[in-house]
What does this fold into?
Amino acid sequence: MSGIVDFLFWVFAVAAVVTGWLVFRTDSMVRAAYWLMASFVAVGAILVTLDAQFLGLILILMMAGEMTIMAIFMVMYMMNPAGLNPMTMVHQHRTAAVAGAGAFVALALVGLLADFPDRPAPSGTDPTVDLGVELLGESMLVFESAGVALLAVMIGAIALVSKRGRYGDADEGSEEPILEKTE
Amino acid sequence: MSPAWAVALVGVLLMVSVYLVAVMETIFGLRVSGVRGYGRAWALPMSRAALLLSQRRSVTERPDAQAWALAPALLGGLGAVALTAIPLAAGVEVADVDAGIVLFGAALVQVMVAVFLHGWAANSLFPVLGAFRMAALALSVSIPFSLVVITTALPAESLSVGLIISSQESLWNVVRQPLGLPIYLITGLGFSFWAPLQLPDARDLSGGTSAEVSGAALLVWRVARASILVAVAAMGAAAFLGGYLGPWLPGWLWMAVKTFGLLAILVWSGHRIARPRMETAVKLGWTVLLPLALVDVFVSGALTL
It folds into this structure.
């Protein structure tokens, strides 16, 4: 059994890296966003193989909405009508190459030199229960503050963009054109 | 269950259920048209499928060919994955996942990706509008959907669908959490973009994401869409109607009766309720279903304590 799990771990690890690389090899904003999602799905699958089922599945669940929203925002900001025209996903080649190589070397050094703890989890623990106790126990203040702050941001963003229509609510008509009365 | 058996079982179950959904769709369609005699309802879906198989595929200018071809496969695959999380009878679990209900939710939310890609890849106006509609629709229904689904885990004190079913031995969740099933069915219609919430593929967009699709590809897309509806109904039966629990009849038969009962309600509503406008659907999700789903969570949580 553990042989299959090890094999799947490597399959998903390679998939995460390859799909992450493909993000920069495509010419479509939507493809780039969904290659990134595929990379995150592979990371979620790795978490599942590491016995963190809940965390892995919730990562896969969250990424669908997040990457779709990201794709739509990219299309909106690029002023590319509907985003259907091909466009390059990379720019500033030299800076990007230096930054990428530097980040790779730094992370590889951390991976090779850091002293990782070797504490196998005691068998019989349920990671989901541990996570719930952590979120609503010791770390409750931190997580709840972050949650309430994010909720406030969401409500604020909706309040900023929601518009009332010509005849009332947004679903009841278009906005009245701005007409200035000239003398 | 061994993987080979699981794949075969899920495949056969989906094929049979999708065919029965098509039959139901035809019967309700004939009924609202005032046509008598439903005998041909069994053959009509097959002849329609044969017609689609014999049509040629339409092509657009510079489509994203890979995503266009793979989006229906992704959609059907998500229906199959969602179905694996649901025990079909006592002890008959395709995949015994501890966090089964999260697996189901993850598969359903990814439907948004499949439909978005399907609309996007055609490189054409109406399909891409359908794709944007799917994003708005799925985001509006996904939070109430997740809330009512996760609320069924409260009495069971577990995310496993098997334990959620066995927690309903004394009382079904449809009684214990009366807000749950109606919200679940409405949002489930949204996720399977089935009438009356077929907004991404609606007629006012000439078919939306499938406006440029014809022939076998359209058949695969419709079958995949129906498989999502089947998974939604099966989970509705398991999470709210006690799944395979019931007297006299064997468990798998109870599960089938409940699933097809819910499917009949869903398909019937598509023929009876008018399609809302996009704005109305989004407003329904955020200002009606979401607060009601929160009430469901808080009341059920308080009762569980």
In short: Helices of chain A lie at 2-22, 29-49, 53-77, 93-113, 127-135, 140-161. The radius of gyration of chain A is 23 Å.
